[in-house]
Amino acid sequence: MNRSKLIAIGAVCLALTGCAHANNRSPQELLSLSVAGLSGVDRYAFSGETGIGTGTQADRNPSAYQGTVSNHNQVNVQGTGGSMLPSQRNPLELLNEIEAAAVKTEIIPEESTGQRTVLRITTDPKKTAALWSDRLRGEFSLLEKKVPANVSAAPQGQGHVQTQAKPLSPADQSALEAEWNGELAHSRRTLESMLATMQAQSTCKLAIDRKKLLPLSLEERTAFRYQVDGKPVEENRTTRLNFNL
In the record, which residues are listed under signal peptide (predicted)? Predict the structure, then answer.
């Protein structure tokens, strides 16, 4: 056998070995590699939607949004179609949290193809509850910072003719701020009471590009159980993300 044939056979063997190595990676390795791969991408775009439902019913009108990440951690998100603007949250942060809380990661054969592998990730309930407690407290803290600006009094006039609205007096403005702060304090107590009784369980589907080992899409479904004023409440939250890398 001449040298050229030996080189050709060797190249084929190396290629087959590389393919086998890629195919034999464990689900946990694929998850870690996809998260690490995304962390190395300097700039990318994404789109998604988030919905909140009660019991087992999903939200029929989820909030849609699209965003970009630049310089690894600069996030810009915009709501679409009049949707409520979500928090400026880095998708990589979400994937890191899912990986940290994962207790079971498995491949879904019937949803995987030659181009992509789909993972099903089940998270630890205690870690999930702790993560969501931090998320919800963070979202509430953002709300607390949105103190209403000086509100004008309602326009006055008769019929269809209205005069220019008058600004609130210092006393009225002070009363408005006191009412706002009171509502915030009540909402904070309600939130903490809810979090103290909250149980949470997340199941995620992560589609990964088999060649690039980068995430293609993510679906996170979380079921919550908690109490409000002593009454049990069940809620679910679904987040879907599509990556444009």
Answer: 1-22
Alpha-carbon dihedral angle through residues 139, 143, 146, 152, given to the nearest 10 degrees: 150
Note the pLDDT of residue 15: 37
* pTM, full prediction: 0.76
Q: What confidence tens digit (pLDDT) does each residue in 105-117 have?
A: 999 999 999 999 9
Residue 120 β-bridge partners: 106, 205
Contact 127, 101 (CB under 8 A): yes
Q: Which CATH code is given to the segment(s) 27-126+200-244?
A: 2.50.20
Domain ranges of the chain: 27-126+200-244
Which residue's structure tokens are 């210092």? 170
* Strand ranges inside 111-230, DSSP E: 116-123, 199-209, 215-228
